[in-house]
Amino acid sequence: MKILLKSAAVTALLLGSGLTQAATTTSSIPMGIDVPKSCTFSNVSAGIILPEDGSEAQGAFSLLCNTGSFSTVFSMDSKAAHGQFQVTNPNGVSLPIEGAVSLFNNDYRLDHSIGYIGFIGQVLDYIVKVKLQAPTTATTPAGVYTDTFRVNVTY
């Protein structure tokens, strides 16, 4: 009987000490995501064909940014190289052009910059308007005349 009592007392002691030592512990793992600023172009015109009669031609592009403020800078390759807007053929013959970029029905020069503060996720539709300063004539050298319109977005 003594052994049984000792055994019961040891069992009670072990069980009791196990219950008093039982505890809970927690841990946490922080989570988050860093979404970088970005802007994307869409609906970009494949090209703009200038009419020989000097009438206006149009191209377009859309811009979507996930930041509320950014700036766009428009440029033409010919402006950087020659100081004026022009299309040039491979033989170096140039035809002067003029034009504007339209946003919200406001026209801006082709070598202008626009600062914008607006709504995140708002798609901005730009229209590029270009024309020859004078129609071509029978004395205008034949050939393909080109230039490149560029847009740089800083955000």
UniProtKB/TrEMBL annotation:
The keyword Signal is annotated on this UniProt entry: yes
UniProt keyword list: Signal
Domain of life: Bacteria
Segment forming the signal sequence: 1-22
Full protein name: SCPU domain-containing protein
